[in-house]
Amino acid sequence: LTLPRALPTGTIALAGARIVTLENRQVIPSGTVVVRAGRISCVGECSTRGVDRVVNVAGKTIIPGWIDMHSHQHKYHLGMNPPRDFEVAPYLAYGVTTTHDPFGVMEAAFPTGELIEAGEVIGPRSFSSGEAIWHARTAGSTEITSREVALHEVKRRMAWGSLLIKQYLQPTRMQRQWVLDAARELGVRTTAEGGPLNLRLAQAMDGHTGFEHTLNAAPLYKDYATFMGQARMVYSPTPLASLQGPWGEEYWWQETRVWDDLKLQAWIPWREMIHLRRITSRPETDYANGILAQGLVDIIAAGGYGALGTHGQQPGIGPHWDTWTNAMAAGNLGALEIASLHGAIFLGLEDDLGSITVGKLADLMVLSGNPLDNIRATADLAYVMKAGTLYDANSLDEIWPNPRKYGNKYWIVPEMYTKDVKPVDIWDRR
Fold first, then answer.
1. What would the pLDDT profile of 369-397 be if each residue is shown by its tens digit?
2. Which helix (H) or strand (E) holds 19?
């Protein structure tokens, strides 16, 4: 079965904005981005003569679309793929234009990605490792008993479309090396589940592209950070789903009344929001956000990379929490680089994604404020563009090239958010 990709054929320009290109950290105070057939054709001083649509975004800031490299967003739908999917659409509404699920059920993750590419589902382009190559003796697991088994398992995932294989704590180093050797032969990258510091060192020595979840020690000393940096490792700390102490998402639950966020209420079912009200108030110093972000920055400074990875903890606002955490040590511009450019490198798609550069896909966020001054301005989106298609960032109504409404978000029960309606009443009415 062959279907065309849903890519616009015309031209559009976003004119008059501050442009944070992430190309060698270049920031253009006021300029234009011209997009032709889904790719960037001009950045900066650009003529708009003959352009099909010019959108005035003066006073706003354009940054590259984000890449969430640890996004478990295929948990609820198996054997069916709803066109209006609350696990998928909110990411795009909040500026994430590419996701990668390092441990997803193949018959959910890959069809969703293909439906998105064909324009049948609205969301970020979606990649996955499929089921991780893990050893637990449960359904879907595979203990690697030989190099031949490893080669079979890597080929199987690549046949589905994996760009990045997940080696998940195979019990022995030889088993892990068999997976890596197979991946090396077939030309695919490999990430790994976390573990103690010595395991991560072995993963780097053996050739993993990167590893997931927070390192279990802080602060990182120079010898360790230097080794990881010189190995060009990608560290994806997923701070919302792991910290030393309370998880990072709990910090943001108590830091903001997230359940009152009207945009989130429009995108996330009430059953996925209601738990956010059960918060535990702790002193800010109970959380390891800053010191663990510093470990990430130290590895980057030594030559390695980071990655935005929200673990699917909170579709929508979650990637912003992750980026705001990274900004505690990386600074605002550094946090934006991790959220876009570093993820593209992790996937091996840096020639197409990650910066506002001529020739790359036009994945852009148009912000009302300036994230270089205030990193929390990233959550104030006016528009989001994926491969040249422009959406209203609040509604995901398509603005160009085919103006159309997103449609009903079928799960919404607005009464849920009022104080005088009990959940049982809502279920009765539904």
1. 999 999 999 999 999 999 999 999 999 99
2. strand 11-20
From 59, 161, 157, 76, select the one nearest 117 (Cα to Cα): 161
What value does the mean pLDDT take over residues 90-115?
A: 94
272 in Cβ contact with 249 (< 8 Å): no
Strands 53-56 and 389-392: unpaired
For residues 64 and 252, what is the distance between their CA atoms, to the nearest angstrom? 24
Rounded Cα gap, residues 14 and 367, in angstroms: 12
How is 157-204 classified by DSSP, letter by letter? Answer: HHHHT-SEEEEE--SSHHHHHHHHHHHHHHT-EEEE----HHHHHHHH
Find, among 98, 63, 30, the residue nearest to 371 by Cα: 63
Picking from 30, 180, 6, the residue whose alpha carbon sits closest to that of residue 83 is 6
Cα angle, residue 126 at apex, residues 121 and 129 outer, rounded to 5°? 140
DSSP category for residue 308? B
Tokens 């059920």: give the residue: 105
The closest alpha carbon to 391, from 124, 4, 36, belongs to: 124
Model confidence over 147-158: pLDDT tens digits? 999 999 999 999
DSSP lists the bridge partners of residue 53 as: 12
Inter-axis angle of helices 147-160 and 106-117, nearest 10: 40
Q: Which of 183, 191, 203, 211 is nearest to 129 (CA)?
A: 191
